[in-house]
Design brief:
8% strand
Length: 71
């Protein structure tokens, strides 16, 4: 397997690990993700973070599978 491909797989695995960490933090509902706007108002974005990281987890898993099978 080419070094660039190996590096890409390692990067994808790191991104998967980060997505899992965020899902553990925000997915259980114990920790909330709050966006503070410049005017001081806040918005709970926890559901969006969970949806985004769930998609990331799936996409990086698929990408690693493809990269490993083509190497």
């Amino acid at each position: 397997m080419a070094s660039d491909q190996t590096d890409l797989i390692e990067w994808c695995l790191g991104e998967q690990k980060d997505a899992l960490r965020q899902l553990e933090l925000f997915g259980s509902g114990g920790v909330r993700a709050v966006l503070q706007m410049p005017d001081g108002t806040t918005q709970d974005i926890t559901d969006g973070v969970v949806r985004h990281q769930t998609k990331n987890l799936t996409l990086f898993e698929q990408l690693v599978t493809v990269l490993r099978s083509s190497g």
